[in-house]
Design brief:
The chain has 15 helices and 14 strands. The chain is of the alpha/beta class and 434 residues long.
Length: 434
């Protein structure tokens, strides 16, 4: 039909012959992944000779080796786990406000807070392993992120010397800072294990333009990329190890010495940002991991205020979440900051409250993933009541988190669960003072 031989066609991707924008194709594929079968309808295909033909297309979601099941499972675990952490972190934040550095349990409370953050980072790693999605995507200054990450990691590894070779006018990357920090941490840990007696770790950044020849074996388009390279002077890898290094749970360590989705998580996170990761290594000659992330024209996000800065208010907030542990902890934190708080356990309940009291409600904190009526649907209905409604979206993440975020809240503030009282206070003031 398209004029190709079977051998030629086997090397094509859908983007090569569908005569509409790549973004339209990606949107359809995301929807199919969420909903299963989906009839697209009439479209145009481009023949090998350049001519166009009209076709009718239907797309189906097919699971290979349980991959979709893993993604769904990971998303569900992350959502529930982060909601649980939200309750723990919220109450811990409130207890810390009532404690001083000299109090008997102050250090224990600070420890709990630190461990909750580590647990939240673990869910990021789990989602990266399953390529489950992104969190709070922002334009980032990669050099600044790496300097912070390197300084923190270097303090724990005195036997390894860190060397930075950063391009001064590095392009911006749009990503979640926490996930990229997790990527770098996993690469650094992997490098240190390859240098048990110590060594040199070099981190480089560059602006690069990649053509189709470079990207033809991946599902990424040619264009402008930011390159991050991590080079160690360790034991290196043979060909067999290089070919399996990104497989889930592959490890060269002995039984009982730990395993896990470290580099599989790295691979999943980078692929999820339409990036490329490649490894160069030889036995006895060290290794280099090269990461390529699509460049952005946006300006990097400004440095945030100090983590512990708390800003108070007196406005009225409607908090909408189907998890009681989240509404209880969230309402107590907001009340402690001085706000008047109304709560709703579902989208329909939120609409009832908003219909009666929207004139006095200053902002709605809205969970994106709820049964029956999700955040997107609730948001649309709120807009029907008041087109100027101010909303902060929130989520512990689920499999359709990214699609909901793209369709309804791209231009609206977002706060990732679990959040503490300081982070919540700053996000509320940013919206209310705008």
């Amino acid at each position: 039909m398209l004029g190709y031989t079977a051998e030629e066609f086997a090397h094509l991707r859908v983007y090569d012959f569908v005569h509409h924008a790549r973004e339209d194709i990606d949107s359809v594929l995301r929807r199919v992944t969420r909903e299963g079968d989906y009839m697209i309808g009439e479209r145009r295909y481009r023949r090998k000779d350049g001519g166009l033909i009209d076709v009718e297309v239907s797309v189906n979601s097919v699971s290979f080796s349980g991959k979709e099941a893993i993604g769904t499972l990971a998303g569900g675990i992350a959502h529930d786990f982060n909601n649980l952490l939200m309750g723990i972190l919220g109450r811990t934040s409130l207890m810390l406000m009532d404690s001083s550095p000299g109090a008997p349990h102050y250090e224990h409370l600070k420890g709990i807070k630190t461990h909750v953050k580590s647990a939240a980072d673990l869910t990021r790693q789990l989602l990266g392993f399953a390529r489950g999605g992104k969190y709070d995507v922002q334009p980032l200054d990669i050099n600044a992120l790496l300097r912070e990450q390197n300084a923190m990691f270097a303090r724990t590894r005195e036997e390894v010397s860190f060397h930075e070779d950063f391009h001064e006018d590095l392009w911006t990357v749009e990503a979640d800072a926490g996930q990229l920090k997790q990527v770098m941490l996993n690469l650094y840990v992997n490098a240190c294990r390859a240098m048990p007696g110590g060594g040199r770790l070099t981190i480089r950044t560059r602006n690069v333009n990649r053509d189709r020849a470079f990207t033809e074996h991946s599902d990424t388009p040619p264009g402008a990329y930011v390159q991050i390279s991590v080079t160690d002077t360790g034991v290196g890898m043979d060909k067999a190890t290089r070919e399996r290094i990104f497989e889930p749970f592959f490890t060269t360590r002995k039984m009982g010495h730990g395993t896990g989705p470290g580099l599989a998580s790295v691979y999943g996170i980078i692929k999820n940002y339409a990036g490329i990761i490649r490894v160069k290594s030889r036995k006895g000659e060290g290794s280099t991991f090269d990461i390529y992330l699509p460049a952005s024209r946006k300006s990097p996000r400004a440095c945030s205020e100090r983590e512990e800065t708390m800003l108070e208010g007196s406005e009225t907030v409607l908090l909408v979440d189907d998890e009681p542990m989240v509404t209880e902890a969230g309402a107590k934190m907001m009340s402690r900051l001085g706000y008047r708080v109304l709560t709703a356990a579902s989208g329909s309940e939120a609409l009832d409250i908003f219909a009666q009291k929207h004139a006095e409600i200053d902002v709605v904190v809205l969970d994106m993933i709820m049964p029956e009526m999700n955040g997107e649907q609730t948001f649309r209905r709120l807009q029907e009541i008041d087109p100027q409604v101010r909303v902060i979206f929130s989520s512990g993440y689920s499999q359709n988190h990214q699609a909901v975020q793209e369709t309804c809240c791209r231009d609206f503030p977002f706060i990732q669960k679990p959040f503490n009282i300081a982070g919540l206070s700053r996000r509320l003031r940013k919206v209310l003072d705008a």
